[in-house]
Amino acid sequence: MTAQNKQTVLRKTFPVLGMSCASCAAHVGKTLSSLAGVVEANVNLATAKASIQYIPALIQPDEMRKALQSAGYDLMIDESLSSEKTLEAVHRQRFSRLKAKTAWAVVLSVPVVAIAMFFASIPYAKFIVWALSTPVVLWIGRDFFINAWKQLKHRSANMDTLVALSTGVAYLFSVFNLLFPRFWTDRGLQPQVYFETAAVIITFILLGKVLEEKAKGSTSSAIKKLMGLQPKMLVLVREDGSQVQVPVEQVGVGEIVLVKPGEKIALDGKVVRGSSYVDESLLSGEALAVLKNEGDKVFAGTINQKGSFQFRADKVGGDTLLAQIIKTVQDAQGSKAPVQQLVDRIAAIFVPVVIAVAVVAFIAWNVWGGDNAFTQGLLALVTVLVIACPCALGLATPTAIIVGMGKGAEKGILIKDAESLELAQKINAVVLDKTGTVTEGKPQVTDEYCLGNNPEWRKIILGIERQSEHPLAEAVSDYLHDEESAPVSQFESIQGKGAKAVFNNETYFVGNARLLDENKLEIEPSVLEKALLWESEAKTVVLFGDSKRAIAALAVADRIKPSSAEAVAALRKSGIEVHLLTGDNEATARAVAQKTGIRHLKAGVLPEEKANYIKGLQSQGKVVAMVGDGINDSTALAQADVSIAMGKGSDIAMDVAKMTLISSDLTKIPEAIGLSKSTVATIKQNLFWAFIYNIIGIPIAAGVLYPINGFLLNPMIAGAAMALSSLSVVSNSLRLRIKN
Q1: CA 584, 589, 591, 592 torsion: positive or negative?
Q2: Vertex 248, ends 244 and 250: CA angle to 5°?
Q3: Buried b / exposed e along 113-124 (16+ C-beta atoms within 10 A)
Q4: Bridge partners for 15 per DSSP
Q5: Residue 106 CB-density burial (10 A; 0-12 exposed, 13-18 middle, 19+ buried)
Q6: What percent of the chain has pLDDT over 90?
Q7: Taking the CA of residue 693 as centre, how many other CA atoms within 13 Å lie in the half-sphere pointing to its CB?
Q8: How confident is the model at residue 649 (pLDDT cuts 50, 70, 90)?
Q9: Going by fewer Cβ within 10 Å, which terminus of the chain is more open, N or C?
Q10: Domain 233-317, CATH
Q11: Tens digit of pLDDT for each residue in 598-638?
Q12: Pick from 676, 677, 616, 671: which is nearest to 429 by CA?
């Protein structure tokens, strides 16, 4: 590969249609990886998506799609904003069809089993069973045969191949025995039919698929809830100054967009007219909103406050921040738990090995089986094909991960990466960002002080602050919202200092000490003492005065979340070290650490220094979890073994992080670790039983016990065992909903 090609490697995630088992995922991955220009292809059965690294100079997505279509699958390569809706529609239609087919299969199979087990002696019982089983096998189960034929044409095999072979052989064998019983009676044998086996196998497999699809649906809805949706409409300003509301998709680069108070900014761009404070805490993690004037950049995902402005769009469509985040999260979901790697290797050869074992069993019986060699050999072949269960192997890991993710989402915990599930249980150090993580991330009034008895001051300061666009003014207004606002006039905002206004012919000032000093207002010692005390506690002081002196003072601070101290205590009780990192000053950091019980802290750190701090902990052999909410935390999140983002934080932090706390409640961290332990334990249980089932079941089905004790496994029992093995895996995974 040339240096130029190395620089042009892209990674994209595409939905894959038509996969039904672990063998399918392995085949899709092998097909994609074999294409010239594809560097790596990682296929996730649970999400039904392929994460592909490729060189665009050598191959394009439409070529990958053609290759997969020729292999019996399909690739959705539409990257427009509507593609997700199209995919959802496909999945909804498929799920509805699957539920209908499953319902019919159950309705028809129940009487089949009842007759076969309890009413086999009634007149024409075998013909009734045949009539009821035929639509289950040939109509409801036709997709298994169609897909198996597609695989055969491409010299491949998957779960559909096994299901089609086992049910097809059982069905045709039963039809032959029913229509030509003399073939066996003339040889002194009683002909048997196995219609119920074929019907039950198909029914249970369909039931397992319904459960799997339902589990998938719960997690995908949680992801959408967390990430949110890009605004569908925005106001576009035409060249003639007219305004029109248009869909986001119709906005092009260079067009002018109007942002009104309280609106979410939909695109990245640059302010061209007006000014306002914009809440960028979702990106920066800083509590205070940022003043945006002409020429300043604005970013998708941030929220405009009281003012309005116009900006020129720089990034649109699939290039917007939210669109890129969604795609990157899909890439993260494409990862697999390390424990899944063994399953993938086995799945790639599972079906051919099972078919080979079945054929060998048939031949062995015909060579050494004695008088009933052909019959027993054929039964052994059917039984091996019936009992072999790639479904259990294919469902073991993804169902546990999917259900674990769904349960986590219900509890406000989004787990996006399977590898983090295995690592989370080993965490012994948690690093916390301060702003927006340990603290609320929003300034609030914490203290007040007033000289003498002046009941008017609250009304006057509220009247001034309600006209101000400064974020501190909003905090003061929220604090005094129960008061009646004084009708002030001649309001004037003084940038970087505060504001002033007139009430009853008296001028009043609200702002910092510099504003009062410049206007020669006297600050009483008691007010100054309070201000110094609050500043030592890392609080911002807002002073209020008339034309002569300071009358009152308010302290504004980013409050510590009520759950922070409880979460720290729970982590420390579990033997986990807790560290605090912040870009704020030492005094602020120490005050927060003391109130929350954090013993290890470092203040004044830059984003890259946070990552270095984590490297230092990792060099000591610690498994580190980083918890943050801003773009300034993204480097540290990427460095950590397990990265955890606040759901109310930046989309970039959520993108980088492997876990997200939707509610931003730190007590969810111990819960997430507990959920991870349960999920990993469930995966291991599923894999153990899936492997043991196949390792023991297949040889027994082939007849290895017959020379020892004369035991032969009935194909119907084998079919029930096969169906139950898949259901046991899914059911064990669904226990996570109850356990946690």
Answers
A1: positive
A2: 75
A3: bebbeeeeeeee
A4: 49
A5: middle
A6: 13
A7: 27
A8: low
A9: N
A10: 2.70.150.10
A11: 999 988 787 778 888 999 999 999 999 998 876 667 778 88
A12: 616
- The pair of structure tokens assigned to 146 is 């169609």
Question: 300, 334 in Cβ contact below 8 A?
Answer: no
Extract the tokens encoding 631: 């773009």
Among the listed residues 245, 239, 240, the one whose alpha carbon sits nearest the alpha carbon of residue 258: 245
Residue 683 confidence (pLDDT): 84
Residue 578 has pLDDT above 90, yes or no: yes
Backbone angles phi, psi at 442, to 5 degrees: -140, 125
Residue 8 contacts residue 137 (beta carbons within 8 Å): no
The two tokens of residue 407 are: 């349960």
In contact, 628 and 437? CB cutoff 8 Å:
yes
Tell me, what's the pLDDT at 138? Answer: 93
- CB-based contact 488:460 (threshold 8 Å): yes
143, 268, 433, 629: which one is catalytic?
A: 433
Bridge partner residues of 233 (DSSP): 247
3-state SS of 148-207 is HHHHHHCCCCCHHHHHHHHHHHHHHHHHHHHHCCHHHHCCCCCCCCCHHHHHHHHHHHHH
Domains in the chain: boundaries: 3-78, 89-224+331-402+679-739, 233-317, 413-439+561-671, 440-559
Label the pairing between strands 659-661 and 413-415.
antiparallel
Q: Which of 729, 723, 732, 694 is nearest to 203 (CA)?
A: 723
Domain 413-439+561-671: CATH superfamily is: HAD superfamily/HAD-like (3.40.50.1000)
The number of CA neighbours under 13 Å toward the Cβ of 201 is: 35
Identify the band that residue 570 occupies on the pLDDT scale cut at 50, 70 and 90.
very high
- 49-54 vs 38-44, strand pairing mode: antiparallel
User: Terminus-to-terminus CA distance in the chain, angstroms?
Assistant: 49
From the list 446, 445, 476, 450, the residue with the least C-alpha distance to 463 is 476
Dig out the tokens for 294 from the structure.
């002409």
Cα radius of gyration (the chain): 33
Q: What is the pLDDT of residue 534?
A: 86
3-78 belongs to CATH 3.30.70.100: yes
Confidence band, pLDDT 50/70/90 cuts, at residue 284: very low
Query: Is 433 among the catalytic positions?
Result: yes
Q: Which residue, 256, 260, 264, 258, is CA-closest to 232?
A: 264
Residue carrying structure tokens 């940038």: 495
For the domain made up of 440-559, the CATH class stated in words is alpha beta
What's the count of helices (H) and strands (E) in the chain, helices before strands?
28, 26
